[in-house]
Amino acid sequence: MTRFVSFPLALTTALTLSLTGCGGDDKKTAAPPASTPTPSATPSETPTGPVVRTTAELTKALLLLSDLPTGFTQAKDEADDGSKPFSSSSSRCKTLVKYLNATKAPGSKASVTRSFAGGQEGPYIDFGLDAMGTADKVADLQEEFEKAVDSCAKVTLKVEGEGSTSMKVEKISAPQYGTGPFAFRLTGTSGPKRGLEATFATAGVNDVVVSVSVLAGQGELEAATEAAVAKAQQVLKG
User: Fold this and answer.
1) Which residue stretches of the chain are H helix?
2) Mapping DSSP to helix (H, G, I), strand (E, B) and coil, where does residue 65 land?
3) Beta 124-131 vs 208-215: how paired, if at all?
4) Structural domain tally of the chain?
5) pLDDT recorded at residue 217
6) Total-model pTM
């Protein structure tokens, strides 16, 4: 099971490999598929009341392996082991740590995820959809998430058998798709996984939060988010 921001499942796989050679030019960039419409900046339909989504409905709105470029494989779903890999000694990081360790978005009524790998050295791309019930709740979550990142300078990532790594937290320019787009980056600055980098983006599609993360990537976040939001907009009508 992936986390709300989709990092730990891909991380669990990636940390068993050497990521020191991930800076090559042969990475496959996750471009939006030709069959996926270009996402609009805002949804064309805005529900006026609470929307009830099923996991089956959300699953149909996730990208498929066939939507990704050649060379990717779909990762096998893994059960949540209850681990909480992220921590911080700072009270200012409490909310962000909660989000990073959560298995779904706080307040989510239904949640689905799907993960892909572009090879043994990455990129690892995870997608998630969380139904919040209303667009207002999506906006509230996005606002709280952004404040959490702004308040926290670093977190600690602990992986069993690997020790602890200090991860720098920084907000980055978000791909402009969906409503309230937001993005940030975690970078290992000291410890066994120094240099490890993961980028995250979230955006709203009506009453649903779309989350995308890229681990050991080479700039795939923009295209991956565009494709994920477009698929959600196409399938999840108001």
Assistant:
1) 7-14, 55-60, 94-101, 135-151, 221-235
2) helix
3) antiparallel
4) 1
5) 84
6) 0.81
